[in-house]
Amino acid sequence: MKLYPTITPSLAEWALSQPLFFTASAPLHSANSHVNLSPKGLPSSTLTIFSGGTQCAYIDYTGSGAETIAHVYENGRVTLMFCSFGPSPRILRFFCRGSVVEADVVGVRGSGDDGYERSADDEEHRRVPNPAFDRLLRRMGHVRGREDVEGARAVVVLEVLRVQTSCGFGVPLSSSACVDSPPDPSTTSTNTSSSPVPQKHSTTSQTTTPFQPRPTMQAWAHKKASTSTLLPYQTVNNAHSIDGLPGLKSARRARGEWLVLGDLRAWLARLWCMRVAVLVGFVLGFLTAVVVTSVGVGCGGDGLGVSGGVGGGGGHGVTRTFLFGDSYSFRDGLVRWLGGVGPASREN
């Protein structure tokens, strides 16, 4: 195993040459908490690793769930994993913190429950494109914009925190190697500038692959888009994750949900899942307040009060001092108490 602070050019080249990658995410706290794992096909057409190696992004196409998006909205934690199916084994992981840039700001307006019954000409069916999404597509090299990514609902942008490689000896070997060997460093791009230019993989390091793009997704998305039923589909299926977390914001708005209230409800649900920790924290805070107040009362009898000064009297002076903020008198009294000058020592 080896760790890297960023994605090196050779690792970027290797990652983009693989036939697929996986995304892993999980909620912080949930009554039905689970770890989600999703496969993503052909990184060379869906994933961009920006020069500098500290940021990457992948296109998230419409699917029957919205687990990764929901988890990223909740806590941002995402891991990308690549593995070799060729003779040269390797596993590569990007440990990231992500954010979501949705394709539409609003999406379909309406309840969402009857979305499939609406006509394509219905005023409720209008979509509001997100300009940030279009800018990000151009940055990723999709010069035709949305025409290149029909069916995409978002781009997940990832800040790379750490990169890890490991042996990959347990990954099965494909009968026809996808990548026979790591790319030659002499043919690898050495561009390390901070400019937002995506690194593209070289075909010189890639041999014939048994993996081919599956046309089903593009055909399905095109049919949905041409009949104006893609956005209603997102409204019904992508508004929330299976563990109840808020999902695609455009889908939630289309269902008539108030985002602030939905986010508040999700936060309260997480708080309820942490109820034991919250209770323990409350009890510890209460006990700490009792101890501190008791120390203050004890020190007060030693004549360290506001009115009694250091010569005596002022029986409850430090209590008043503690409450009203005379930090010097309270600190002095605490030191004397812990040093054995408190009420117990007076009795001797």
Can you give keywords for this protein?
single chain; 348 residues; alpha+beta; nine-stranded antiparallel sheet; 12 helices; 9 strands; globular
Please provide a written account of the structure.
The chain is α+β, with helices and mostly antiparallel strands and 348 residues long. Helix content is 35%, strand content 18%. It has 12 helices and 9 strands. Strands 1, 2, 3, 4, 5, 6, 7, 8 and 9 form a 9-stranded antiparallel sheet that branches. A hairpin with a 4-residue loop joins strand 4 and strand 5. Helix 9 packs across helix 11. It is globular.
Summarize, please.
The protein is α+β, with helices and mostly antiparallel strands and about 350 residues long. Helices cover about 35% and strands about 20% of the residues.
Rg over CA atoms, rounded to whole Å, is 30 Å
Number of strands: 9
Low-confidence stretches: 107-125, 177-197, 200-207, 303-324
Question: Percent of residues in helical segments?
Answer: 25-40%
Distance between the termini: 65 Å
Largest sheet: 9 strands, antiparallel
Chain-averaged pLDDT: 77
Q: What fraction of residues sit in β-strands?
A: 15-25%
Q: What's the structural blueprint in terms of helices and strands?
A:
Layout (H helix, E strand, L loop, with lengths): L1 E3 L4 H8 L3 E6 L10 E6 L1 H4 E4 L4 E7 L5 H8 L2 E7 L7 E12 L28 H9 L12 E15 L31 E2 L16 H11 L3 H8 L11 H6 L4 H15 L1 H26 L16 H8 L2 H15 L1 H4 L2
Antiparallel strand pairs: 1-8, 2-3, 2-6, 4-5, 4-9, 5-8, 6-7, 7-8
Helix pairs in contact: 9-10, 9-11, 10-11
